[in-house]
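Running this now, will post back.
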Amino acid sequence: MKLITYSLLALTLALTSCSTEELVETQSPIEFTVDLNLAEETDSQMASEILYYVNEYRSNQGLESIVMDRTYASAYAVEHTKYMIQQNRISHDGFTDRAQGLSNQGAQSVGENVGFGYSSAQELVNAWINSPSHRDVLEGNYTHSGIGALQDDYGVYFVTQLFYRK
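Update: finished.
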């Protein structure tokens, strides 16, 4: 079994990433499809814990809680998490497609945080809180979230969290 040890600082700087995108309505929306069954593949306990800690942080900042989207956003998040596991790296590859897919479902804006290598939801969310760009996404004007939390063959978690506002 492969053992991975990182310092928290290295994980915060190198292994988490985020992106936001304000969506502009286009003349003819392009269809982006996703298999909604993918949403069922997320580690539901880890995903629930991530959302718990995100909402705990948002509450402490005087922000509204985010509701879990167990359909499109979670399916897109799982699809991207599987891609990152295949690539053995975190990325925002295809974020524009995920954002457009959610826009086609009524999202007005979309943000994304990704990460890997954390053994608990609390460690992951704390790393995002301690990173200004990730914290901006956590504090964004979002109402819903989908989470893809999966382990690779070595038991290492890869996570994609999509945020959006309806």
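DSSP finds six helices and five strands in the chain. More later if anyone needs it.
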